[in-house]
């Protein structure tokens, strides 16, 4: 049975996965689902976030070793987590069986204004300069999700605010994570493992063309959700889980036929 490592994005922690780990577990019976936090987020909020994706990889590997979770792993990664997954698979190919990349972007396949939609710059800069947890979480929700009606979104926002009050992400760590994402450049060669790219047509944070360009460059299977936002596992976790399960099953059938 496979061990799936779920990697989150900028300023997010394991609780932001919401119901998705359970949805994925039901779609992949027998799989082990683990949701580590990147340094500076969640249970590691007091740590200093690295300014390189490679250092984030090492932090994840060290945590899994300390928890006795042995490789190989399957990775499912969102946004910044997708960069961590690609770096991990490139540096330590024997540790990774497969990877699912969700709404991620990286040089040289995407330009900066595509990786972070230019119309969001003023709001993001204002958030980083002025702070304020309520305004920060409202902005992140607006930019990353198209999920639910007003009542559902307010309930989700209250939960997110609770996470931030318990495990606050410092402004310094938010900036350091942005620096790591901006500096990251994908390796010249595609990681030598099965890759599935998932993207959302309704992504308001990252241009969906980033996933398309990455999938085309690496000849990876690509599936597009017709209307979800950037946080695809939040907006339609069942769709993600079913796409992953079908892809894994197809890969297993192909492996048996060889």
Describe the structure.
By secondary structure, this protein is α/β, with parallel strands linked by helices. About 50% of the residues lie in helices and about 10% in strands. It is built from 11 helices and 6 strands. A 6-stranded parallel β-sheet has the order 2-1-3-4-5-6, sandwiched between helices. About 40% of the residues are buried.
Kindly report how far apart the N and C termini lie: 20 Å
Overall mean confidence score, pLDDT: 90
How would the global form be characterised? globular
State the helical fraction. Answer: 40-55%
The number of distinct helices, counting runs of at least 4 residues, comes to: 11
What is the chain-wise order of helices and strands?
EHEHEHEHHHHHEHEHH
- Measured on Cα atoms, how large is the radius of gyration? 17 Å
Structural class: alpha/beta
Low-confidence stretches: none
Percent of residues in beta strands:
5-15%
Biggest sheet overview: 6 strands, parallel
Which strands sit side by side, in order, in the main sheet? 2-1-3-4-5-6
Count of DSSP E strands? 6
């Amino acid at each position: 049975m496979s061990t799936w490592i779920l990697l989150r994005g900028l300023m997010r922690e394991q609780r932001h996965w919401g119901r998705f780990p359970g949805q994925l577990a039901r779609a992949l019976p027998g799989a082990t689902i683990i949701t580590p936090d990147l340094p500076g987020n969640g249970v590691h909020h007091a740590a200093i976030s690295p300014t390189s994706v490679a250092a984030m990889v090492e932090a994840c590997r060290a945590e899994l070793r300390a928890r006795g979770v042995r490789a190989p792993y399957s990775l499912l990664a969102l946004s910044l987590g997708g960069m961590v997954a690609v770096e991990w698979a490139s540096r330590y190919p024997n540790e990774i069986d497969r990877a699912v990349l969700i709404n991620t972007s990286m040089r040289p396949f995407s330009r900066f204004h595509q990786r972070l939609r230019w119309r969001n710059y003023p709001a993001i800069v204002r958030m980083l300069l002025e702070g304020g947890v309520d305004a920060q979480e409202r902005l992140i929700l607006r930019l990353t999700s198209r999920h639910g009606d007003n009542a559902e979104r307010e309930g989700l926002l209250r939960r997110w605010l609770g996470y931030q009050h318990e495990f606050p992400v410092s402004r310094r760590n938010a900036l350091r994570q942005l620096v790591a994402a901006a500096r990251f450049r994908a390796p010249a060669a595609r990681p030598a493992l099965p890759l599935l790219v998932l993207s959302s047509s309704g992504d308001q944070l990252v241009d969906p063309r980033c996933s398309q360009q990455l999938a085309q460059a690496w000849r990876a299977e690509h599936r597009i959700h017709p209307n979800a936002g950037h946080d695809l596992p939040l907006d339609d976790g069942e769709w993600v889980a079913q796409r992953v399960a079908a892809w894994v099953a197809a890969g297993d059938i192909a492996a048996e036929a060889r």
